[in-house]
Amino acid sequence: MNAQPDKPQAGPEVRIAAHLAEDMAAVNALIRDRMASEHAPRIPEVTAHLIEAGGKRLRPMLTLAAARICGYEGNDHQKLAATVEFIHTATLLHDDVVDESERRRGRPTANLLWDNKSSVLVGDYLFARSFQLMVETGSLRVLDILANASAVIAEGEVLQLTAAQDLGTTEEIYLKVIRGKTAALFSAATEAGAVISGAPEAQIRALYDYGDALGIAFQIADDLLDYGGSAAAIGKNTGDDFRERKLTLPLIKAVAAADAEERAFWQRVIEKGDQREGDLEQALALMTKHGALTAARDDALAWSDKARKSLEILPEHPLRDLLSELAAYVVSRIN
Fold first, then answer.
1. Alpha helices, DSSP H only, in 70-167?
2. Residue 239 DSSP label
3. Can you tell me the distance from the alpha carbon of 142 to that of 113, in angstroms, rounded to the nearest whole number?
4. CATH of the domain at 122
5. Residue 108's beta-bridge partner residues?
6. Disulfide engineering: 193 pairs with which of 1, 67, 258, 295, CB 3.0-4.6 Å?
């Protein structure tokens, strides 16, 4: 009898979800309960459209995993996980209005199905709900962490608006933008899970550092894939960031190395928005010429390494090993 080929192992996020299945069931029940509204039925309609669209729930899982690694036995980590998911959903609703997006997770966006006003106001409602959940844990420190993250997220979005289409945008500004866009909520999710557990300060810091580095690696990898990934892998078409004139890390590195003629090209396609047939190919050629794609990839791998190393001081736990795998996995798409 022929041996059956081994099934490919599920990704670490799937195995983390399996490990936390009981906690996640409680979080999902909490989310459904708290997104209800007695007086405004549109709120659960809009929220359910996004929350139930098949997202991986990665951020709430990070909170639960951090708490469990630190030996937490209560259920306040479930409230914090729901809080993190509400903050994330609120920012997505607002982002889609700002970006005038039409697709999210393969489905029409809420602002397209309803309208911009509904998306903004429902996002505001979810922020308010998230703060109610935070307060219920009775931890001022957790409230401080998540309130600060909410401010950093908003600050990052405004910074992105002012940095958009500006060739003077540096790698330092880019890092601030992606800390707001992605890493701030990752690090708040892991830090809050450690704090609610009463973990030692060194472990709290380690989990904050992990979330920060994981978020940065994740976002750089995502930005890199725009210049060389399939639509199925990244949920958007290759070159979308270029067409939208977004200054992501590969482009910033290429602009920094540009000569006068190349700079004139970047000014035309990014600052002026005068894009023509063959410009994407020309942009890719310039990025390749100056090693911008390779350098951005090296940066993503370095942040992934930093995330994994930060876990070393944590207690031995299956979830610690899975978080380490997750840090490698988020950049495996660009290897």
1. 76-98, 110-113, 116-136, 140-163
2. T
3. 35
4. 1.10.600.10
5. 103
6. 67
